[in-house]
Predict the structure.
Amino acid sequence: MVDEKILFDDEDAPEKHLQISPADIIQKEFSVRFRGYDISQVDDFLEEVARVYNQVVEETARFKEEVRALQRELAEYRENEKTLYDALAAAQQIGGDMQENARKEASLIISGAQLDADKIIADVRQQCAVLQQEINTMVQKRAQFEASLRSLLENYLSMLGGERNNVK
């Protein structure tokens, strides 16, 4: 931003440089000399110069006030611009933070889902192992039952075969 005082350091310059006022012009008296200017024309001219000079002074004051008002308005616009830039930067930062948080949250969800899937797979494998062990146990029991039944049947057959031999 441009410093306002740098642009308008000389805002009081006309009063500093001009050591004469409209009243000084009107009140100025000149000595009368032989073959001098017509006093009434000089007075009329001085009154006209004073009137114009007074208008210039008033216009200058009005312009200075306009410049001050415009400077205040410009400062306000610059402050608004700064506020908007700050808000934009904050919004961009928040947007970036939200994206980063969303990435982190997605990563955590994926990690959690992976852990859940690994646990489910481990549970299923454990259940499969238990079922396989039960199957093996049942196969062994079946084999034992078949062997026991075979042995029992063979014993009955041998008893029946021995009784047959005894009956004949």
Notes: Confidence is low (pLDDT under 50) at residues 1-10.
